[in-house]
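Let us work through a complete example step by step.
Step 1: write down the sequence.
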Amino acid sequence: MDDWTNYSVFLSAKAVQVCCERERLAKPNGGSGGPDFFTSWKLLWGEVQGWYRERPVEMHSIIRHPIGEFESGLTNAFPQILFSTAVGMCGNQFYHMAALQLLQSKPRSIKLPAGSQSTIWHALQICGIALSNEQHGCWDLALLASVLRAGSLMSHEGQQREITLYLGRMQQSTGWKIQTALDDLQKTWAASNTV
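Step 2: predict the structure and record it as tokens.
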């Protein structure tokens, strides 16, 4: 299963590379005889979706509750998505991050099949996975970066509060100095609320 997680990390890194090279790849033949951005994006999207479809059952979530209210009357601002293994959690986290990155830079001319998930759906999954699986062994800088990126898309006050509390717990437990990142996230939320 480690290979599947490593592969999802690789796909997420490829998504960053393709998105960062968008300007160069926008030129015919990628500016250097290679594939253009449209082709690179489409191939990588297929590879990322292939990872999700073909991942072993051990990498699937064992419990999944949608956003909403539980029988107990408690509400959750994010889906609750639990995994039985850390590699399952990390692999799926990186999958959603790769998909989010690609969707945020999707060429307008590419039409995805009906039923494809949105950037917000992937962002909700990233935050839901992180908040549902608070194993300290899974806390790393990649997880932090994915929560910060996905969290920046959250507009609901309850979601913003949950992310702030989660990142505060992470900071307190790890000793990481992430207050500047938290401040930047709150500025992003404040700016999006004034639009």
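Step 3: interpret the result. The chain has eight helices and four strands.
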